[in-house]
Amino acid sequence: MRTRRSLNSIRQAALGAQSQLQNSSTISTATTLHLAGKKEDEEPEIKLASAHSPDPEVRKRNLFQQRAFKFSHSLLVLLLLFFVFLHGVGLFLFTKGFLLTRLVLSEKSSCDISPLGSGVNWKGGDIAKGCWHPKTFNKAVVIVIDALRYDFTVPFGSEEDNSTGVRQFHNAFTTPHAIASKHPRNAILLPFIADPPTTTLQRLKGLTTGTLPTFIDAGSNFAGQVIDEDNLISQLKAVGKRTAFMGDDTWMALFPGLFEGDMEYPYESLNVWDLHTVDNGVNEHIFPLLHSANASRWDVLIGHYLGVDHAGHRYGPDHFAMREKLVQMNGVIEKLVESIDDDTLLVAMGDHGMDPKGDHGGESQGELEAALWMYSKKPVFGEFPAGLDPDGGDYSGPPGARSVAQIDLVPTLSLLLGLPIPFNNLGAPIVEAFYGKGGVPGWKNLVDVSRLTAAQIKRYQAEYSGKNGEEVEGIESINSIWDTAYQKLSNVQKLGRKAQVADWQNVFIEFSNYQSETLRACRNVWARFDLVSMAAGVTVLAGSVAVVAVYARGFTGDYTEITDTLLTRMAKGLGVGAVISVVDGIIARAERFGIPSLGQLLGLSPLRMLLLAGSLGTIIGFFSATHYARRRLASLLPNSGWGALCLVFTLAHSLIFGSNSFTIWEDKILTYFLATFGFVALLSSQRLDTVKRALGTYHSIVFLFLVRLSSISRLCREEQIPFCESTFYSSASSSVSAPRTLVILFIMALGLPSIIGSYYRHTNSYSGPAPVYIGFGFRLGLLLSALYWALDSADNGNWIPDLPEGVLKPLKTTVGQIVIAMGLLAGNLAYAYSSVCLDVRLEDPLASQPAPSPDDDDEDVAPPPQSSKPIVRLLGASNLHGSRYFMLLVSWCLALILLQKPMGGASMGLLLWQILSLLELLHTLSLSDSAIGPVILGILGNSHFFSTGHQATLSSIQWESAFIPFSTIRYPWSPMLVIANSIGPQLLTALAVPLVALWKAPPTVTETLGKTAKAVTTHILYHSVITLGAVACAGHLRRHLMLYRIFSPRFMLGGVVLLAVDAVILLVVMWGTRVSFLSVGELFGY
Amino acid sequence: MSTTQTHNHLRRTTSNSTSAMRATEPHIHTAIIAGTFISAFPSLVSDPGSTLIWALPGLALLQAVYQVRCLRMLKPTPSGSGKKEVIGISSKIISSFLAILFATTIGAAALYVLLILFGAPATTHVFPTVLCAMHTALLAVAPLVYKYRLEGRVWREVLGGRAVVEECFAGAVGALGGAWVGAVPIPLGMDREWQKWPVTIVTGAYVGYMVGKSLGWAFPGKRLPL
């Protein structure tokens, strides 16, 4: 109410002055108001208008203009909606093809609980004999030779013709094959097919859990690498077996605390240039442990050699370094064979292969084909039974050899060692390991193990469907296999001793069918890149970039005029596209035509086809409208140095995602861009006249300084070490803020409002609601936010030891809620009903003319009066739009500062200052129409993403921000809080974009709306180009070694940023500009 | 009066007779810089700090001689009687020395601040960064200071990128642009020795300076398309 009144009072005062002047019988009917502004600003002469003007004509005209404004504003919102639609569809299609999610179930198999259910006669449950199945071995030595490709292990050529095609890697690693062919009952050598991606981390997950890899294993522990799922190692621990480990330190990250503390020897794995440290380290520790004196200390021994992999990365397979390495490994195997006892199983395997260049990560045949060698001094292995199809299953390996899947190792090892099969396992027991001498006992054993495996898979599948809420496609037919298998089993069991080999074989085939069909169904759901969908997504995104680019930078003149044509045609295009895809689907459905639909041809589901056709139609519609309005079209190429700079920044930023090392250093690169802009602005200011030069120089130096200052705060990602030092938290190994950052927060609470105030003051805009809003409200909010973080630190660090438990937590949550409410609730409401930052002063011209008082410094001196009319001064009119809209930014900034950790909050405060300094710079250099403003705001946002302690990695997400205003997780608020914490800077800069057009803009409305539209869409353009770059590079580099570490997270960040920026612009920015424009228009006309 | 005439006459004749040699002098300067840089590059990579120090006096001397020999000083503001002022060799040497002094102190300080602002490490590697700034200042700033003195108006044109293209200005633009581009390969994860700070920046500045200087010589009198 208060603010309402103040708005009215301004109008009343102004109108009063108007009528007063009229009464005093001067000539003019419309009084000219002299606007007090800055000296260097051209003085706009504005006529005061009002919806409540006494003149009905004027009133009518204003009302009409207000409606016209609202109409064109709504059209703009609709247009943005179309852009958002295109972005959404593009990202949706790409994501559906690229990121496949799988639910991680935390259930564990247990030794005591049979997978077969309670009604079955079951003799298991005893660890000493073997939990689910009688065990074959007590101990095991598992050797992983990283990147051991299958063809490294088989002899190549014969003695005579060693001239053709023999490579360095051939015939070097010979012992396994020699033993397996000489003693087939003691050893088996098989191609061991990996599920892509063939990276060590994902492979180790597969080799221990028995499940398929996907990028996002959506489970309880989303952030870390620790395997939550049931796995071999945790089963070993659960039944009390002791595991020793040496080699690649990835294991330590995956299975913390599961190895025996005195028998774990991890080695740094990432240094590809070092071929020997890890291998020598493993050798140093493994052989002493194998010595009979130490053999009782462990049950399972895991060794992971990296030399072969590193030799591949560094030199490629056809190099003598590789040969040396393989020969060394051969020696290791020979020594291991000598060292183990009768009761120990020796497994040597590769976790993946390598491509011809020696790299891996993708899904080429060479990368997928690793080798598996199992050896025992007891003759336990059997030959592959003649009655089975050696090429059955989805895992095709090299011709002439039977292949097994890597996940098959999990049930095999579990059952051989007498462990329960891990809950998530989808693999099958390896036939040779259980067939033994063959005959009926062999088949019976195979039926037993395959039945146990299948039963566990069935348990898993039931649990998964229950958790996921939807069934895996085609599950009915798979379940019918289960029923058939059980039917056959009971038939065979009825036969008793009369059962033949063929009968048992039939049952086995059914159970293994069940396993392989489930696996196939799961793989279809989880583990394939859908290239068509990805390409469709990239196409739509690229189209949207073209559309936004043409709209944002291609049109000349008034934007509001073309919007309706564009909208009509886009809507028509959308409709036509949708109708075509629906009709296409219907025709295909009517089977008698026998025409497959386009969607079927492309392998896209009807929904995706509909979205694709609709968005392509929209894009085509837009360009047909562009063709229609071609006379309004200008070249998209930059016509000034600033435009070229924008192009360089945007393109360079989107191209860095093609290189892993540039992507890693994105934070530094963005600082570099910003400094470049500041420096160019500094140079460019030298071209201006004296006053503007001083201003431009000052603001660009402030900008440069702030950029560097905020870049000090950073949280290094793993790949940046050792060239980077984290400053975000109190130390490199903690995630707690240092107490000194709290001091920064309190200083900021006192200082930042004054700084903002100073930017308001020099256009005399620090009047009206501004002092209350900024000087009081914002300051109080910042103090409370600092108090919140002080309480948080006190709680974490137990600063007040005497305080009873449970006092600080509710207190700080309440403070957090208050700040959020102040920023988002009270702030937005106050913004909506606030008046403009304007003050009216009536002056006697004769009195005011001589000697301006010191605080009059910034004001314009009115032209020398001809008569003794009193002059109405409007203080703050030269930044009417800007000062009004900026208050929205202030209130949102308050909430976003609270959601950041103390150091991040300080970074957000700096960001607000930087925005102001940038706006002044843009105004001084007359760049309000250029693309540079929105682009620099985008870069600023992305740059502060890093200085608020984030990185483009999943592990840097600050999950705890969900608990700032709440003590428990609440949907949908908690995810929104985490997003607001993660990309708060991008959201704040998106909010600030209209200011590029509004800051110190003349108080007109229609024209300014067009400029605002241009600025806002340019900002969207920047973000969509960056996201397109990240998306296209992630899709293109889907076989890259670093896909899951670097490119995928960056793509996800890009997608989230684009959609969130779109949403903020559509909802908050559009609403904010509408409110601001209406309140300006009410006073000054449209 | 007559002495001045003779002097002028003498000057003219000497400049005529040696004009061919004079014209090649800027290129000799470029060639010396190029040759020295290429020969010193391996030691720059292996030990940037001491190489940069060791090269600094040489570069200062080279630039000083180049300024005296090849550059014509901007005439002081034509406030005088219009009488042609002849700048003696000693005053040239002093100006050149002062320009070098200015560049290695104030110019280098400004460039050092600029390097830090662009993201150079502020707390570590201080010494190499300072040396990098001094080298860049000797290349970019010293000739400009010698040529334009500290004339505010001209300097504003130079900073604003509006000055007439000639060797000094184009060389300075080239040196700064080269140093800017030189930062590009730093993050590339190739683990090469030459990627270490500030080798790429210095290399960029030198290469840029030589390219810019030669272009400035080839296209004098033009203006940058900004």
How do you describe this structure in short?
Chain B: Pathway: Glycolipid biosynthesis; glycosylphosphatidylinositol-anchor biosynthesis. The complex is a heterodimer of chains A (1086) and B (226). With 1086 residues, chain A is of the alpha/beta class.
Describe the structure.
Chain B: The chain crosses the membrane at residues 93-120, 126-146. Chain B: Its main location: endoplasmic reticulum. Chain B: It comes from Choiromyces venosus 120613-1. Chain B: One of its GO terms (cellular component) is endoplasmic reticulum membrane. The complex is a heterodimer of chains A (1086) and B (226). Chain A is α/β, with parallel strands linked by helices. Among the domains of chain A are: 58-98 and 532-562 and 629-847 and 869-1084, no CATH class; 139-376 and 401-414, Alkaline Phosphatase, subunit A (3-Layer(aba) Sandwich). Chain A has 35 helices and 14 strands. With 226 residues, chain B is mostly helical. Helices cover 72% and strands 0% of the residues of chain B. Chain B has helices at 2-17, 19-46, 48-70, 89-117, 126-148, 152-159, 167-182, 199-218. The longest helix of chain B is centred in the middle third of the chain and has 29 residues, at 89-117. Classes of the chains: A alpha/beta (1086), B mainly alpha (226). Chain A binds chain B through residues 273, 641, 659-662, 664-665, 668-669, 671-672, 675-676, 678-679, 683-684, 686-687, 693, 704-705, 707-708, 711, and chain B through 114, 116-119, 156-157, 159-162, 180, 183, 187-191, 226.
